[in-house]
Amino acid sequence: MSEKKFNVAIAGATGAVGNQMIICLEESNLPVKAVKFLASSRSAGRKLRFKGDLITVEELTENSFKGMDIALFSAGGGTSKNFAPFAAKDGCVVIDNSSAWRMDPKVPLGVPEVNPHAVAEYTNKGIIANPNCSTIQMVVPLCPIHKKCGIKRIVVSTYQAVSGTGKKAIDELFDQTRSMINFLDYDINVYPHRIAFNCLPHIDVFLENGYTKEEVKMVDETRKILEDDTIGITATTVRVPVFFSHSESVNIETKKHISANEVKLLLEKAPGIKVVDDPEKNIYPLAIDAAGQDLTLVGRIRDDESIPNGINMWVVADNIRKGAATNTIQIAEILAEKYL
Ligand code: A2P
Which residues does residue 37 pair with via DSSP β-bridges, in sequence order? Predict the structure, then answer.
């Protein structure tokens, strides 16, 4: 890391991911000169702590980024679409956690363990996109397998935590659960159905082809990050009553054969991964173990006996940390160290 220090803005600092970005920034090696916390006018004046100091939240405006070097955005797609160009115009590099810029061919989509070289393309628009949480944790273990054997097809089903929807959803799961165990009436505001003690096969909006936008994001973003449009991918994304950490059942078909044992050995050496796989002792990746740390946990690695070159695995990561804030900070660290 160079001696230079950076002014860092967080847009959406009062939200679930924004809060975690503050914590990850405090924990990171990024040399920070000053921080600016931005949110909507509703939060202007609130105070948030950073390394012991109280920082007053400011309303996000077109002029918020003057003098800033790096802006981390997690304030929704519309806000990113509207305000990221103002930051870029003022010479502040945006790392955006929304879906607004991810599939823009001029905007890199970065997962540091997979395609750190992509960060260099920030110069095109001054924006780097952070992938969707469920995509990040899937490509981390798939990248080394793809490099070694070539992945032909991916079938993924997700079990996604409510924190991915934001603070309101965390509150809704808590309130509904408390009401139900006390035999009280409950409100349904965030999702179309009750989330407590339920599973909703519906994340983001439905598209004409019957898939949800979340499912299509997983397909498109995985191909972009792995830099291979030939991979066949099909996804079913499901919201489950879990607060933190997404779990995924990932089935792959490879071009060259690889055994489950070889996959385990490969992933044990891969960056950002912890293999947690001793089923006889009831040891496998759990949402509660992934929450609060940055590794992607991989287990239940087994041969898919229905095809010659198939592997099944269970992949779990903290969606707010590795799936969002941590990945953003890792990108910022690469940017600061190599390019700014
Ligand atoms: P605010 O708290 O003032 O509403 P979450 O994903 O947890 O719901 O958080 C969303 C984050 O994005 C919050 O920090 C929220 O600020 C912020 N946000 C939402 N809309 C806007 C907007 N139009 N301008 C700036 N920040 C916004």
Answer: 10
Residue among 95, 108, 93 nearest 339 (CA): 93
Alpha-helical (H) ranges within the chain are 16-27, 77-89, 133-149, 167-181, 213-226, 260-268, 287-290, 326-334
Please work out whether the CB of residue 82 comes within 6 Å of at least one atom of ligand 1: no
**Which residue's entry shows tokens 């930051």?**
87
pTM, whole model, 2 decimals? Answer: 0.97
For the stretch 222-241, pLDDT in tens is: 999 999 999 999 999 999 99
Residue nearest to atom 9 of ligand 1 (CA): 15
Q: How confident is the model at residue 2 (pLDDT cuts 50, 70, 90)?
A: low
Phi-psi group of 131: left, alpha or beta (phi > 0 → left; psi -120 to 50 → alpha; rest → beta):
beta
For residues 174, 178, 180, 181, the Cα torsion angle rounded to the nearest 10 degrees is 130
Query: 134-319 has which fold?
Result: Dihydrodipicolinate Reductase; domain 2 (3.30.360)
According to DSSP, residue 98 is labeled S
Give the model's pLDDT for residue 3. Answer: 80
The atom of ligand 1 lying closest to the CA of 60 is 25
Closest CA to 270 of 243, 248, 296: 296
Question: Which of 127, 163, 136 lies closest to 322 in space, CA to CA?
Answer: 136
Answer yes or no: CATH 3.40.30.10 is held by domain 6-130+324-339.
Answer: no
